[in-house]
Amino acid sequence: MNLITTDVPCPGCKALLTSFDGLSGACGECGHQLDDETGTVLLAAVLAETVSDVYPNADSGGKPAKVCRTCRRALERKVEAGTGAESWHHHNQDIMSGHKPIPVDADKVDMLGRCDFCNSDLGEEVWVLPCRDFIAGINPLTGQNQGYAGDWAACGTCAPLVDKNQWNALLRRVQKGWEDDHGIPAPEEKVTAWRVLYRLLRKNIKGAIYLSE
Hints:
By secondary structure, this protein is of the alpha+beta class. About 25% of the residues lie in helices and about 20% in strands.
């Protein structure tokens, strides 16, 4: 799964969709309705031109674009809008690793991957959930527009919950994992953001979850 965080221009008023509502699909400035086809076009534009942050956790083969040669974790790709300058950085959960990232192609090292749901280490058992690209709208915690591209990776505990359509149980697991890591209750805004995200994800699943070889 690739997480794209960016500002996208509205095809109606051309203003940046900083107030885009991912649920109603309307521009907050002019009210222009963005249908599924328009959303797909916008996401393609994001991927091609206006990406500011991309978190490449897993593509259709469960592999990221780049990993760090030192810690073998997937790296975050940043592309400067306008210049196209590309750089690679550790994710937030790896930022205290104590070393600078050394980007290498994913197939050059034995990657230490994470579940796209609970963020736990994947280990040997990696499940892949086939998904269409989709735009999720504004992240209430960052104020930025977000889109997701590619398939999602799941651990051996989250995968059965997805397979059995037990999304409430999955949300509780994700929330508990976050709270265990941070030592505080998850903010209600974050729980709501997860709930909205999984609702959108369910609409864009294009196949049964399967165990990656």
